[in-house]
Amino acid sequence: MSIATTIELISNGRAAGTTCTPDLAAPTWDFDSVPGYGPGSSMSDVIPTSSPRQGVIPDEYRNAPDDELHERIERAKATLGDRVVVLGHFYQRDEVVRHADFLGDSFQLANAALTKPDAEAIVFCGVHFMAETADILARDDQRVILPNLAAGCSMADMADIDSVEAAWAELTALYGTEPDADGRVPVIPVTYMNSAADLKAFCGRNGGIVCTSSNAATVLEWAFERGQRVLFFPDQHLGRNTAKAMGISTDRMPMWNPRLAGGGNTAAELLEAQVVLWHGFCSVHRRFTVDQIEQARREHPGVTVIVHPECPMAVVDAADVAGSTDLIRKTVAAATEPTTFAIGTEINMVNRLAAEYPQHTIFCLDPVVCPCSTMYRIHPGYLAWVLEALVRGEVLNEIVVPAAVQVDAKVALERMLAARPRPLAGQRDPGPAATTATTTDVRA
Ligand code: SF4
Question: Which residues are involved in binding iminosuccinate (predicted)?
Fold first, then answer.
């Protein structure tokens, strides 16, 4: 199978043996049969017992050589034509992305699917919360398929509805529910796009909102116009980095550990809080360090360091640029002179940028090859399996968000779409928050 190919691709010329786990080179189906996120950066994270499991798929896909799988995928796609759209996330492995119609981040892809009105099926080569978002935004008659049900997201799984509702009950008991003199309620829930649909719905029901890494500052501004403080989940780093850039002191950003009473905080700390940060993180972006940045600067004088805001605060502070996957792409694309970029985000995306812009020197800040293990769960065998089933008229691995959850989640998503950055003095209304930057139409 294509694990070796993947390792070769993601290694991109690095010395053999510099991967984060030898399991990356193990036979594909060995790790797929065990519960967990698979080999890669989040393989040690605790997987919730309620997470979907992927059953064993037929031997004809497990035993097929790479070339045959690619041929079968292409044939199935050709047969289905516009009836199917295949979406590939920036962090997805190359041997899957080569079959994608669109390449983008989670929200861009969910929107890209809407540009294909004839598509009866949306095959999302990403992770579970992304497929849920696509289902929320898709037409009722469109079916959303996740090729491997075990492709969750360890960060999204760090906040579940029961824990968030329990935290909300504690916080509202402490803060009360009365607005202040400016009409601002005591607390507003804000969830990152990387969260389960029921958490987006929770925000919709409770006056809250969704954010992406592109528009988190605008969304926090929106929240502070309506609330005295924010409960931000699940990614502490995006919340902290965004709030700090807005001038909020880190002393007023306590962390909420869902396993502890009061989240591990005193009542006084919570009353002083402006942003209560959920104890969640992305295992991929947590790997980046200030030492790696210093090393890159020593070895490549003049290097431009770009990191994703899911990285720890010290890393974001030490970088030249911090921003979403879309901003990372745009920063590289905008460089008119040959430039050296050290990038702190998932390795598949970094290596794809390096291949796309050979005039620049582009490398991953982390010298150890460690892909997003949950994306890694989807490989061509699963894609061939779901596509050939569609040709036969069968829908496998459908992701269905219950109607009531969809309604409330849409409220929170629509608030995000309507949120506008605050105009600077003398500036006209800059329009809605940046949420729908373009995907790459791979077929274009
Ligand atoms: S990179 Fe991190 S946040 Fe993104 S899907 Fe993987 S584990 Fe989740």
Answer: 89, 106, 192-194, 213, 308-310, 325
